[in-house]
Amino acid sequence: MSDKYKISSFIDVDSKEVRWVLVDDFQNIVNSDDYFTSFTPSNLEETFIALLKSADRESQIELIFKPKDIIQNPEDIKRRIPFEDIGELRVIDMNEMSYSTPLKFYGVSRQVIAYILLNATTYIQSVKFS
Known about the structure:
Layout: E1 7-12, E2 17-22, H1 26-31, E3 48-54, E4 60-65, H2 67-72, H3 74-79, E5 85-93, E6 103-109, H4 113-128
Antiparallel strand pairs: 1-2, 3-4, 3-5, 5-6
């Protein structure tokens, strides 16, 4: 399949629905008035853990991050991932690891990982504070 037709999903924080988007359109979605709040965490200093498995399931890494770090330098998170396609992404609030269920995404392109991590942290915070 051509990269032109790669898709990825995010959670619409307002409706709690999963939305599917072409990877090439992600930046437009993130900046749109309709979905901007789905990529805007309320606490930029909160620490999260991202557990990533490669699409072939042969590699796995763990990233510790704060939303602030992603906003300030989104390219850094991409450089820290040694594989292009992420088969599974789990995001966990580091302060609530013992009793929180990780938020999971599948088939994530490294190209949009910063957006997906911001969306995951925004959703986790919205659920926690609602």
